[in-house]
Write a structure and sequence with these properties.
The complex is a heterodimer of chains A (411) and B (117).
Chain A lengths: L2 H9 L1 H17 L4 H20 L7 H23 L21 H13 L6 H11 L5 H7 L4 H16 L10 H23 L8 H18 L6 H15 L24 H13 L8 H14 L8 H14 L3 H15 L1 H9 L9 H12 L3 H13 L4 H14 L1
Helix pairs in contact in A: 2-3, 2-4, 2-5, 3-4, 6-8, 6-9, 7-8, 9-10, 9-11, 10-11, 11-12, 11-13, 12-13, 13-14, 14-15, 15-16, 15-17, 16-17, 17-18, 18-19
Chain B lengths: L1 E8 L1 H6 L3 H20 L3 E6 L5 E4 L4 E4 L9 E9 L2 H9 L9 E6 L8
The chains are: A mainly alpha (411), B alpha+beta (117).
């Protein structure tokens, strides 16, 4: 367990427990009772909050919350069942049983809910919103902040998604290995997107940035712990998240500004995350499937094992980006490939590669990359012009500020 | 120096809307605040209260359940602090995180029965 992860254990108690407990209640009482389960979790947490604020936490706050939420759920479900004239025969009797742990049934409950959230009829952004809400304890406003949208829009999305959940009486069946395998890519994609959203967030000061990355790591770890979901591609995804997590802190300076790869202090990269990244990358190398997670993890591994920018095996990275481009044509991949070409074969080659890329409007990274190579060639005017263009097409003020600062550095 | 009783009113409506993250931040802020009062030597008795209870009233001591206050008036906890006067006690209470989530803090001077008024 890394220092960062251990810290987040105390730090995000309520968020973590809300996801774990909700997943358990939904698995136990049925997805059609998800609203009731949310109420039960909220009530239990309010009671805990009031008590714990005045003193110390119980030895096992998670167990305390679970017991309180289960009791509340039984109360609410009985009341609900009476009004609906349905006999409450599904209600369990074991109010004081099993202490919750990180493994076993509770862990499975979270996975089941995660797979349920990734139903193919739901749009990817809806799946992610639902995961953040149900499994990560994010409020609508917090989800909205993460995705630059309004809380109202998020609420609509969640209501629609829960409408689907409410229609079914059982959660996803993890014992059906075939079903697990067929839905796995969606679950992986949701976790990947969750991490990317946090990692590539344009606002370095947003605390939600780190939370998204931590949650993605936690969910990927859950996935790898399951025998049916532990495929090479899942291991590659976890490796990628570890390699990227290693660099999270070094990417931001003391003034909450982004630090370019060339300027990052590699001694600040987290060695434990890097070690875990290599461990899972090695495990992912079984079988003959090479997914984009494998390729992206391999690229991140190249960066992590290099002593410096100069000592990086840029030709290897160019090769990996070419394999990646063969799988999917995405602007980010094209630009990163061209940047690697420039690092491997000189700034002029980099500019030539960048010149071949056709870019959608409102995408600042192409101009930013050009600026770097122009500056390396001593073409300061062209570098400044490119940065001005990047700044003009930046998606947020914070992003524009990064380019303006870079431009000031050139003069 | 005199004692003052802080009554925290409206706990339930204030906490019901908090997200887990906000709960986390609030709890830590409140614990920190109580810790600061203790470190400053101001802290006396201090505890949360359940919303339920029993009221005895009248000569016969008729018992009824619950304090029957409106949720926003219900006392969710109390703290006894030491301060020189009501103004200082008020200033100390201004730092209470309960205010940041929409609760109210009632400040009541405790009468020292040993002192002539």
């Amino acid at each position: 367990m890394s220092r960062g992860a251990a810290h987040s254990r105390v730090d995000s108690l309520f968020r973590r427990e809300s996801g774990r407990i909700l997943a358990h209640l939904v698995a136990r009482f049925g997805p059609h009772r998800i609203d009731l389960a949310e109420d039960a979790v909220q009530d239990a947490m309010c009671a805990a909050l009031q008590t714990w604020s005045f003193g110390s936490l119980p030895a096992e706050p998670g167990a305390w919350l679970m017991r309180a939420a289960k009791n509340r759920m039984i109360d609410l479900a009985r009341r609900d069942a009476r009004t609906a004239r349905i006999l409450p025969k599904v209600l369990p009797e074991d109010q004081a049983q099993e202490p919750p742990t990180d493994t076993g049934p509770l862990h499975d409950d979270q996975l089941k809910l995660m797979f349920s959230c990734c139903h193919p009829t739901l749009a990817p952004e809806t799946q992610i919103a639902l995961i953040l809400k149900a499994l990560c304890g994010f409020s609508h406003a917090e989800i909205a902040a993460a995705f630059f949208t309004s809380a109202d829009a998020v609420e609509k999305r969640i209501v629609r998604a829960k409408g689907y959940l409410r229609k079914s009486r059982t959660v996803f069946d993890l014992d059906n290995a075939r079903q697990v395998r067929s839905r796995l890519p969606r679950v992986q994609q949701a976790i990947y997107q969750l991490f990317s959203e946090g990692y590539h967030s344009t606002d370095a000061t947003a605390p939600v940035r780190l939370q998204l990355c931590r949650e993605a790591l936690r969910l990927a770890e859950l996935l790898v712990a399951d025998p049916s979901a532990r495929t090479p591609s899942t291991q590659a995804l976890l490796a990628l998240i570890h390699f990227s997590s290693a660099r999270l802190d070094a990417r931001i300076d003391a003034h909450s500004n982004f630090v370019l790869l060339a300027d990052q202090r590699r001694s600040e990269w987290n060695a434990e995350h890097i070690a875990l990244g290599f461990q899972f990358l090695r495990q992912s190398a079984q079988g003959d499937e090479v997914t984009r997670f494998h390729l992206e993890a391999a690229i991140a591994a190249e960066h992590c094992r290099a002593e410096s920018i100069e000592a990086t095996d840029w030709e290897a990275i160019v090769g990996l980006y070419e394999l990646l481009a063969a799988q999917a044509v995405l602007p980010a991949i094209e630009i990163n490939r061209a940047i690697a070409v420039g690092q491997a074969r000189g700034p002029r080659a980099g500019l030539d590669a960048l010149a071949k890329i056709e870019m959608p409007v409102g995408y600042p990274f192409l101009d930013a990359a050009k600026a770097t190579f122009h500056a390396a060639l001593g073409e300061h005017v062209m570098a400044a012009e490119a940065l001005a263009a990047a700044s003009a097409s930046a998606r947020t003020p914070a992003e524009a500020a990064v380019y303006r600062r870079q431009a000031r550095g050139i003069k | 120096m005199a004692e003052f009783l802080y009554l925290y009113r409206g706990t339930e409506p204030a906490t019901a809307k908090l997200s887990p993250q906000q709960m986390q931040e609030y709890m830590q802020a409140f614990q920190r605040w109580i810790g600061e009062l203790a470190a400053a030597g101001r802290l006396g008795a201090c505890a949360p209260l359940t919303p339920s209870g029993r009221t005895l009233s009248g000569r016969d001591g008729v018992a009824s359940d619950g304090p029957y206050a409106e949720a926003k008036d219900l006392v969710g906890g109390y703290t006894v602090v030491t301060a020189t006067d009501l103004d200082e006690a008020t200033n100390v209470a201004r730092g209470c995180p309960f205010l940041t989530i929409g609760g109210s803090v009632e400040i009541r001077p405790v009468i020292d029965v040993a002192k002539p008024m």
